[in-house]
Amino acid sequence: MRRILILDDDADIRLILKVFLERDGQTKVHEASDAAAGWALLQATDLDLVVLDQQLPDSSGMEVLQRIQRLIPTPPPVVVLTASRDMELRQSLLDQGARAVLNKPFDPAALVNELRVFLND
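Structure (tokenized):
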């Protein structure tokens, strides 16, 4: 069973991704709406992928990404979702260890297909 954390404050985005990702019967989605809850799940769960919103109510995605890279011995791949078109921000996220920076809004089926690539690395 693959385990994915969706860390996004938008409940609709979490629900959509959960439904699409769990369709295969081989994926379990964990959800968190803020960095504190996400960090607790990161420490308690062996994850295969993290889908991280760049803007959280209690932290930026960049801060969460840096913490993951610094404090988890073998960090899972992290894919960041953002509505920002700021190319410097996107490059900084990649430089800090994000495997990809993907756009919001998104087509759910297309996004799930992109995420599956990181599960098969």
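Helices lie at 11-22, 35-44, 61-71, 87-95, 108-119. The mean pLDDT is 94.
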